[in-house]
Amino acid sequence: MSILKRALAMGAAAAAVLTLASGPASAETTIALLVKNLGNGFFDAANKGAEEAATELGDVKIIYTGPTQATPEGQIDIINSLVAQGVNAIAISANDQDAVVPALKKAMDRGVTVISFDSGVAKAGRQMNLLASATKLIGDQCLKMASDLLNGQKGNVAVLSATSTATNQNAWIEVMQNDVGMYPDVNLTKVVYGDDKQDKSYTEAKGLIESDPDLKVIIAPTTVGIAAAAQYVEDAGLVGKVLVTGLGLPSEMINHVKSGAAPAFALWNPIDLGYAATTISYNLATGKEKAEAGGELSMGKLGKVKLDDDLSGPMAPPFVFDASNIDEFAKVY
Ligand code: RAM
Predict the structure, then answer these.
(1) What is the DSSP letter of 247?
(2) Furthest-apart CA pair in the chain: how many Å?
(3) Does ligand 1 come within 6 angstroms of the Cβ of 195?
(4) Is 21's pLDDT higher than 60?
(5) Which residue's CA is minimally distant from atom 11 of ligand 1?
(6) pLDDT digits (tens, 9 = 90+) for 58-83
(7) Do the beta carbons of residue 93 and residue 117 sit within 8 Å?
(8) What residues are paired with 114 via a beta bridge?
(9) Residue in 71, 219, 247 to alter for ligand 1 test, most ligand atoms within 8 A of Cβ
(10) Residue 159: how many CA atoms within 13 Å on its side-chain side?
(11) What are the Cα distances from residue 62, in Å, to 35, 47, 279?
């Protein structure tokens, strides 16, 4: 063998060793959908959308994960183990916008793409934040539905939220508190927290009603809270006396719409939210796109999302469900 040929052969062997050392070249992108808590139908629907996007993209594996309780500590443990497993991207719905930042920063330092969706992370801890809808639209929609249920009378309205640190619910409640003057019939009283647990939300709804004989409407801007509150109103025989509204999953609310406990509520398509979060994570992780203030990111078949200076962007406006359309949507999510 000539010296040149021998050198080329050695080069090829060295390259083969290098390839083996870094593991077989794999085209698969692993994306973790890290949700507030498991056992929540809203996130199960988002996961359906994530799986749809993965099938379309072809070379994506989804890890659907979250703590059993909606706590930031539970999410931090999971972030650390996802990084150790070598995932390519994490799309998180955060239980606290600040507490998860150090763990997510470490993940990004290790080359993991991080986005937040649904419930955002502070700017330092992610590359972009996908909002289901504009925050102001959601808060104002909740006030409008409460006002409609008051039907021209002035009345006490209380809020049953998720956890006290949830980014999304806190932002919507802040809008409600700032904009309540637009609805002089709505007298916002207190805010309580059911932690996105069915039993705690049920007990908190009971507490709200028992502590205020003049309470007319409960706004629960959480799919877990609204279903639990409507269930309590039915169980206590209070349908028509206290009305429930907020943000709910049609499949979980259909019976409560029909009973009259929750005549109208709003939401967006949670399947689309999971689909978009996955598509964006994939495009960022594979270097096809970059998140920039004022720029746009593709959500595949759902179009594009425009990013503001906070690198946040909203999808579609919230949609109202009531007796006229609940049968149709309850079949979908
Ligand atoms: C619950 C969660 C989620 C929120 C919905 C409306 O499922 O708190 O974050 O977006 O409600």
Answers:
(1) B
(2) 97
(3) no
(4) no
(5) 222
(6) 999 999 999 999 999 999 999 999 99
(7) yes
(8) 90
(9) 247
(10) 27
(11) 13, 8, 11
Within 160-301, residue ranges assigned H as helices are: 167-179, 198-211, 223-235, 250-259, 270-285
Provide CB contacts within 8 A for 40, sequence distance 6+.
196, 223, 224
Structural tokens at position 305: 């999302």
Contacts 24+ apart (CB under 8 A), 169-172: 169/119, 169/221, 169/222, 171/135, 171/139, 172/135, 172/138, 172/139, 172/142, 172/221
CB atoms within 10 A of CB 105: 14
Residue pLDDT, tens place only, 267-314: 999 999 999 999 999 999 999 999 999 999 999 999 999 999 999 999
Any atom of ligand 1 within 6 Å of the Cβ of 220 = no
- H-assigned helices in the chain: 3-21, 41-57, 72-85, 101-109, 135-150, 167-179, 198-211, 223-235, 250-259, 270-285, 326-330
pTM (2 d.p.):
0.92
- How far is the centre of ligand 1, averaged over its atoms, from the C-alpha of 49 (Å)? 16
Enter the tokens of residue 118. Answer: 């649904």
The whole-chain average pLDDT of the chain stands at: 94
Q: Which amino acid is at 301?
A: K
pLDDT at 22 > cutoff 70 = no
**What are the residues whose beta carbons fall under 8 Å from the beta carbon of 74, sequence distance 6 or more?**
37, 66, 67, 68, 95
Tens of pLDDT, residues 165-212: 999 999 999 999 999 999 999 999 999 999 999 999 999 999 999 999
Query: What tokens were used for 16?
Result: 């083969």
Tens digits of residue pLDDT in 97-141 = 999 999 999 999 999 999 999 999 999 999 999 999 999 999 999
**What's the gap between Cα 319 and its chain centre?**
16
